[in-house]
Every structure is written in C-alpha cells, then in structure tokens.
Amino acid sequence: MISTSSPNKPDLIEELDQPLNFERAFFDKGMTILSIIFTLIALVPLFSVLYYVLVNGFSSLNWTVLTSLPAPTGSIGGFGNAIQGSFIIVALATALSVPFGVLTGIYLSEYGRDNVVDDFIRFGVNVLSGVPSIIVGVFAYGVLVIPLKTPSAWAGAFALAILMLPIIVRTTEEALKLIPWELRLASLGLGANRFQTIAKVIVPAAFPGIITGILLGISRAAGETAPLIFTAASSTYWFTRPNLPTASLATLIFSYATSAYNDLKSQAWAASLLLLMLVLTINILARFVFRRRF
Amino acid sequence: MTQLTRKEEASAEIFTPQGTLPADPIFNNVVKVAGLAVIGVLIWITLVVAGDSLPAIRQFGFGFLTDSNWDPNSDQFGGLSFVFGTVATALIAMAFAIPIGLGIAIFLTEDFLPEAVLTPISFMVELLAAIPSVVYGLWGIFVMIPILRPLLQWLSGGSSSGYGLFTAGLLLSIMVLPTVASISREVLKSIPRSLRNASLALGATRWETIFRVMIPAGTSGIVGACVLGLGRALGETMAVTMVIGNAPEIPKSIFAPAYTIAAVLANEFGEASGELHLSSLFFAGFLLFVITLLVNILAEIFVRRVSLERQ
Lengths: 294, 311
Prior knowledge:
Helices cover 73% and strands 0% of the residues of chain A. By secondary structure, chain A is mainly alpha-helical. Chain B contains 12 helices and 2 strands; from the N terminus they run αααββααααααααα.
C-alpha cells in the first residue's frame, strides 16, 4: 500500500477517496433500491391477506355461525359441523401419519448409513413432498372412495396423512441428527442395546424437534383443500361416523367463496379467519416454542 | 451424495458400534419397513392413478395430448387445453417469482441491514407459505381481482373480466415466492465468506460481487430452488381454480380465462358423469403427476449438486 503512490497522483488518500465512477455507483445503488422494493412487494400480499381476512372475518364471525349447522338460504345458519369435521379429519390423519413418519425419521437418522436403500428412501421422501396435493386426493379417491362407494372422513384423512408424511420424516431426521454422538456412545457403553438407546435416550432428547415436525405437518394438513374436495366431500350434518362424507373448513371456504349468496360469502371469510388463525398459530408455535429453523 | 455422506460421517462411523452390540432385531425391521413404506406409497400412487386412467388411455392414447376438445356430454375428452393452462400459469408465476424471490434472497443475505431486522423479514416471507391456498383464492376473488380489473381491461382492450391466465399466474407467483426465496437464501448463505471478501478486496462493489461471484457460485442451488418452485406452481390447485376462469379451451390471449389440470380435477372429479369421464380425469391427473415428478427429480439433482460442490 505504501509503495503504490504513483508520481502522477499526489496523494494516496485522495485517490482512495475518489468516488466510484457514475455508472458503477448508479448500478450499485440502483440494485440495492430494487432489491428493497422487491422485498416490500413480497410483503404487500401477506399484509393484505391478513388485513382482509381479519376485517371481513371478524365482521361476520358470531356465536351462531360457529355452533350451528348450515341452513337453507334466508335462515340463519353456520358451519359448526365443518369446524368439527376439520378437527376430526386432521386428528385421524395425524394418528395415521405420525407413527410412519417418526419411525422413518428414526430409520434414516439412526440406521441409515449411506447405502443405496437409505438414499433411495431419502430421495423418495423428497419426491413425495413434491407430489401435488390434488394428485394425492385423486389417489385416495381411487384407493378408498371407489371401493367404499362414498366419500368419507377416512379417505380425507388418508390423503392428508400422505401429505404430512414427508414433513414429519424430515424434521424427525434432522432433530435426531442434532443429538450429539456422545449420548449414543454413553448409552451403548452402559450396555443398552440400540432399541433401548433410541427409545430411552435419543428420542426423548430430540422430542421438541419431533413435536415441531408434527406441528408443521398438522398446520400443512389443516389448510389443505384440494385433496378433501372429493375424498371427504361435504356434509350438512354433524359428524357421526368416519365412513361418511364429512364437512371441513377448507372445502367449505371453496364452495362458499364461489357461491352467489352474500351470507355464504361472509361465512367464507369467517371460516378463513378461523382456518388462518389455526394454521398460523400452530406454525408459529412450532417455530418459536421449539426454535428450530428460523 | 453417497460419497459425500461417507466423508461427512466417516469420523462418526468409526465410533458407531454397528453390528457389534445386540441390536434389537424387531425394532430394526420395524423402522426399515416404515422407511420402505414411503417408497411403497410412491409406487402405489403411480399404480392407482395410472391403473384408473387405463380406459381413457385405451380410448384416446396420445391423442389426449393433442386434442383440446373436452366435452363430457358427448364423451369426448382431450387434455391439451389443461396441459397448456398448467404450463402457462406456472411459467407466468415463475417470471414474477424468480426475480423477486432472488431479490429477497440477496437482500436477506448480503448484510444490507442488521440481523435483528432481517430475521423478522425472512420469517414473514416464510409465513407467506403457511397461508392456505384456499384463503389465497378467496383473497384473489374479492381483493386482488377488483384491484387488478381496470388494469387488465385496459391491457386487454376491454375484454378481460379479471379472471384468467394472467391473474392465476400472478396469484401463483405469490405462493411460490417463499420456496424460491428461502432456498436461494440458504444457498447464498452457504457460500464461503472468503469468496465475497476476496471480491470486495479487489475493488468490486457490492452488486458486482453479487453478480460476478455470489450468483455464479450459487447457480446450481438457485436453479434448483427455481425448479422446485416450478414444481409447486404446476401442481397448485385451489387458488388457481378460483381465479383462472375455468374455460376448457386454449386461451386466445394471456388475459383470457383458461383451465389447468389441477383445476379441472378439483371441479369435476367429484361429479364425474361416467366411467370414461372419470378415467379421463385420472389420465389428466396422471399427466400432472408425471410432469411434477420429472420437475422435482430435476430439482433434486440440482440441489444435490450444490451439496456435492460444497464438500
């Protein structure tokens, strides 16, 4: 640095203080402004969606809407059965998906050691997470609705369970991989076998991470509509048995949004508010309480 | 991948008493079966969807892909307009999502603002992905379309109703934005700091560094992120169904109503009028499945190349 001062330029400090030429400075500032604008543009829809769902949703939300059955147009009705149906379908899906998901995660993390099978399974999990949800619905229709001859909560839950599976597998695997090797070694050193090590040491240590995965899976499943339209279909009655068509919040929003009646449209906003609050609460809970990715 | 995992875990492996201690054989098999069940599900999906589309495949064969006449009343089914709509909406979505998503990813990684400000922003971008598709659709119908309608009518010379290919593509772009942004962000973050520092030290400005060093170094990961976003866009159903206008024809302009495979499945699957109608819907679904499968495998290849390069 010291030796670089050239005879033409009297002062090195002055040279360093030379501003960038206009073109480069313009490009640099311009791109910075552009990227800020892009980021702001991306946040506009988020706030707009939240704003309209909150405003329109709260104005049409009341006790009757939450607790009563759909009624013929003109009389006061609600979507209590859709709230109930959503909870039941998602609960069934979770019960179906969690055992397979967690066990697969355990396999990939604890048993999976770079052989072809594990790589294949990991690849399969990634591919499965990219399968469009509507295709999973079509599949569930072929597997359960056609043979049973009726849409049912089972068929809807089956479709949602498949959609939750990759999320649960991945988060479980990641959570288990974060557990230090020393814990495994200590447990094995004490004479525990692999099953005991996994069941009594590794899984309890990774429990918050596994719960995060399950919550993220639930939040995904709760908002899914496409696979439920023709698998769980809809119903205007309270839930009685899981082998009958069952209403859900998501499909209700879809059919009410495109309806011609204003009271149904406002019920669609109220249902959206409930669904959005449910999904975002679970999602944020998963991220914050258990502090994983973010 | 295989090689890299081996390298990565070589040290751990030395200490893993694999096979030396009495592993619980039952549990071992149970977890293996669960793992293989994932593959089983993929194969099962393929078999069921392909199997149920056989009648339509026999009836129409490849003609299904070149015929855009979809008429359940006369049992005539051609899927060209749906394939066209699916690809067109996805491409429109990517045209918006790639520059904006990449812009966000750069903004969130290149130290423009302190970490304390960036973390909430990246959290909010990820929240975009948590909003259910059907809520986007509702918002699209009652908020986005009324706002866009004057602009679209002006652009299309008065013919646009607000519902159509362009609106669907735009709404889709919001939905795939988090995918493009968050994966690109992780890719950029994983590029060694020394590369950036070297470029800055040579006198490059921040954006010269981004364009000539960071983006080239992250190309395959960024491409992977975009391809993954494309896969999402191709299969996205509810929001598109609600704003595309649902017209089973090749649209004459970008602002005209159209239809996608996912949308026709959502609208007609439950009320298919006959066996051939149902089977044709399965066939359309099978096409969508194959397209997204290929796109996702491509994305997987790109993303894997990144982790290989990083080693």
